[in-house]
Amino acid sequence: MFNRMDNMRVPTKRKLREAKRHYACVAPDGWRRKAYIEELERQIKLLEAGCSDIYETCYGAELKLSNKGLTKLTQEKILLVKQEHPSGRTTIVSFDIPEDVRHLRNKLRNFLKKAGFTMAQRSVWTTKKDVSELMRLLIEDLGLTKWVNVFLV
Predict the structure, then answer these.
(1) Whole-prediction pTM value?
(2) Angle formed by the axes of helices 33-49 and 13-21, nearest 10°
(3) CB atoms near residue 36 (< 10 Å)
(4) How far is 98 from 143, CA to CA, in rounded Å?
(5) Contact (CB, 8 A) for 146 and 96
(6) pLDDT, average across residues 91-116
(7) Above 80 in pLDDT, residue 65?
(8) Counting CB atoms within 10 angstroms of each CB, which of 81, 104, 142, 150 has the fewest?
(9) What pLDDT sits at residue 20?
(10) Percent residues over pLDDT 70 in the chain
(11) Alpha carbon of 147 to those of 92, 134, 140: distances in Å?
(12) Nearest to 44 by CA among 1, 4, 68, 12
């Protein structure tokens, strides 16, 4: 996800903010100052949103996507798919999510609307887009595999 991350050390959130504030910072080799500052801003946003974590390694610190970040990445991939399935097949998402976790059900419904699915019934959504595998990954990431099925017909 990050270009040229191996040239950049990410020690702490505080250090990222300091580097961003310091306009005259010296960018690492191969980086333009503006691109370096933009990359630091992106990393700060990811950390603050809880989409990434900082891990200490023997080479320094690394920034890695958290589970929340991976889920958001899968959602973005689904939203970017514009092409229909080559053989004209349909992706169907069917769910029966219990009332005690209705917030997850509402979250899934809102995402399906946003992704261009159409409602066949209250808990059955369809699309012609080729997103069945990405939807399966998203369902696993959200922990809804007990209640949600994805079909390609």
Answers:
(1) 0.66
(2) 140
(3) 20
(4) 13
(5) no
(6) 92
(7) no
(8) 81
(9) 55
(10) 69
(11) 14, 17, 11
(12) 12
